[in-house]
Write a structure and sequence with these properties.
The radius of gyration is 24 Å and the shape is globular. The protein is built from twelve helices and 26 strands. It has 534 residues and is α/β, with parallel strands linked by helices. The model has no long low-confidence stretch (mean pLDDT 96).
Length: 534
């Protein structure tokens, strides 16, 4: 067991005051006998500058007084310290960089942020290399920062390369960081995550009211959202700080838990990956000539032909659980004289096929891509994901346990899918609470998912894209602090169906902030590890 800490603090333009806050939090962590403490991103200076020259001038240099003081304090307390700062590089670049100092004060590793968020693109340069996995007496440590955790590539690459503990420094006002993006990286990779966010204004105080007015948001929404946390490999938050106020949280953790990658059915979710079929992720994302429909009515339902027949005239898409106890002819009859489509799955010898059915019969098939222990008969997996062009948009089918893998949905996104139909059987609590919402959020995909719980109750939900996305477009309602979390329509307990309106056309907008595209802007260096080409 090791004791780890996540510290949240405010950082402004007074570098000396920022350093004092960092040292104070390191002292507090040491007083609580922590062996490692994580500090937020951009601890040296507020992440807002006059221009790139100003940003370079205010950035840290290795062994400058700011970083020397951090190293000395780590040595004084014999504690590991992870901190996020801006660094002025010898080649003229300015990077947002995570640094890990060891208990002797030595710099053990550094990681330049590979995907920048919004205005950071105006002042900083993205990292050129993938983040390292650092071997320490505590365990194997990986580092990332803020926007790198809003997508899956950086943390996935670290996990594939053996990291047990991921350290995330944030500078974020988004409340869906704490509720979604931080814990899902622990759960999907079965690793520990320690995340430290900012509090206080994230913009200069004298400019904040004007910027807030221009963006149409309350000024306090541009403060760091706090809620620094420590998350276990099953996605459970074991310690969380409040949303406001300087704070530090602790947990005693067993890093060896991160070595067990098995799902309850026995599937090793990392070993079951198929790097060879992920090579399209190295390529540029497609853009279709026309967006999907503005509105589409979708439902998830139990496999009852009578229920399908009742609902189909008013629906565009119905998704049933995998291997539903209803035949294709029964579904076709239920769809007579309608334009509705139904998605479910069926066994085809040694393959597991997702099937797209309309009133004319089977209109498309998608083999499951990842063999898993749950279906030992699945010996003929597919080798590619197909996206089907329909009158209302582009549809991908995710079959069974393919829903476990973020790479599956990324394959749909780079092929410009608008909607993903998921016929699956969730095996762990996080898969519905975190997994499916994140697949929608990080890819800008509408997700319609149906499954069965162990007691055969219908589970799943509809994860629709909101037009209120980013601060760089007009909002229809007040800004709530949510950046990318989808609108969720869950299946209520005991329900046999649920329906909702989704917006295929919203999948076109992937700009989570000015200059930051969730799909086209994904970092490419992690692809080496993710596709087995390192």
């Amino acid at each position: 067991m090791i004791r780890v800490a996540a510290a949240q603090l405010a950082a402004g333009t007074d570098v000396a005051a920022n350093l004092d806050a960092c040292l104070r939090m390191i002292d507090a962590a040491a007083d609580a006998r922590a062996e490692l403490v994580v500090l937020p991103e951009f601890c040296n200076h507020l992440s807002w500058y006059d221009d790139r020259v100003h940003a370079h001038r205010m950035a840290c240099r290795i062994q400058d007084p700011f970083l020397t003081a951090i190293a000395d304090r780590a040595c004084r307390h014999a504690i590991y310290v992870k901190i996020g700062v801006t660094l002025a590089r010898d080649d003229g670049r300015t990077t947002g960089t995570s640094l890990l100092f060891g208990p002797d004060g030595a710099l053990l590793g550094e990681s330049d942020k590979q995907i920048l968020m919004g205005a950071e693109n105006d002042y900083l340069d993205p990292g050129l290399d993938d983040s390292p996995v650092i071997e320490t007496p505590l365990g194997r440590i990986g580092m990332y920062a803020c926007m790198e955790g809003v997508i899956n590539e950086v943390t996935r690459s670290l996990t594939v390369r053996g990291a047990q503990l991921l350290l995330n420094s944030l500078n974020s006002f988004a409340i869906d960081e704490a509720g979604l993006h931080i814990p899902v990286r622990a759960a999907e990779n079965k690793v520990w995550v320690v995340a430290a966010n900012k509090i206080g204004p994230l913009l200069p105080g004298d400019q904040l009211p004007a910027i807030a007015e221009r963006l149409g948001v309350p000024p306090d929404r541009l403060h760091g959202a706090g809620e620094s946390q420590i998350v276990a490999p099953d996605g459970t938050c074991v310690a969380m700080a409040p949303a406001a106020g300087e704070a530090i949280v602790f947990a005693d953790i067993d890093l060896t838990r991160a070595d067990d990658k098995h799902r309850p059915d026995g599937t090793d979710v990392i070993a079951a990956r198929r790097p060879a079929i992920y090579t399209p992720l190295r390529e540029d994302a497609l853009r279709s000539a026309a967006p999907g429909a503005d509105h589409l009515t979708a439902a998830v339902s139990v496999p009852d032909p009578h229920a399908i027949a009742r609902m189909a005239p008013d629906l565009d898409l119905i998704v049933l659980p995998e291997l539903a106890a209803v035949t294709v002819p029964e579904i076709v009859r239920a769809l007579t004289n309608t334009s509705c489509r139904v998605v479910t799955s069926l066994r085809a010898g040694g393959a597991h096929h997702g099937v797209l059915i309309d009133a004319g019969g089977v209109a498309g098939r998608q083999p499951q891509l990842h063999p898993t222990a749950r279906h030992p008969w699945l010996t003929e997996p597919g080798d590619e994901l197909t996206v089907f062009a329909l009158p209302w948009g582009r549809l991908a089918l995710v079959v069974g346990d393919d829903a476990l893998f973020p790479e599956t949905f990324r394959l749909a996104a780079v092929q410009d899918a608008d909607v993903v139909a998921v016929a699956h059987t969730p095996g762990e609590e996080w898969e519905l609470r975190l997994g499916l919402p994140e697949r929608s959020a990080e890819n800008r995909l509408n997700v319609v998912a149906a499954g069965f719980a162990p007691d055969r109750a219908l589970v799943g939900g509809i994860y629709g894209l909101s037009p209120d996305f980013t601060l760089w477009s007009a909002w229809r309602g007040p800004f709530t602090g949510v950046i990318s979390h989808p609108e969720v329509t869950p299946v209520p307990p005991g329900a046999t169906a649920v329906r909702a309106t989704i917006r295929p056309a919203q999948a076109v907008n992937r700009l989570i902030s000015r200059g930051t595209d969730l799909v086209a802007g994904r970092p490419r260096r992690p692809m080496d590890a993710m596709t087995g080409q390192r």
